[in-house]
Amino acid sequence: MSEDGEIPMQRRLTTQDVTWFLDVNGLGRLDLEPSYQRKSVWTRRDRQYFLDTIFNNYPSPAIFLHKDIDEGGNTTYHVVDGKQRLETILMFVSNKLPIRDDIGDTRLANKRWRDLSDEPELKRRLWDYQFTVEMLDSIEPAVVNEVFGRLNRNSRKLSSQEIRHSRFDGWFITFAENEADRPLWRSLKVSTTARARRMQDVQFISELMAVLIEGRPIGFDQDWLDELYATYDEPEQLEPAFDPDEFSARFDALASYLQVAEEEHQIVSRHAVNFAHLYSLWVWLVQQDSLPDVEHFVSAYSTFMLEVEIAAGNPEPSSQQQLSPLVHQYADNARGATTDIRPRLSRHEALTRAMRAALSS
Question: What residue stretches are annotated with the GmrSD restriction endonucleases N-terminal domain (predicted)?
Answer without folding.
Answer: 32-168
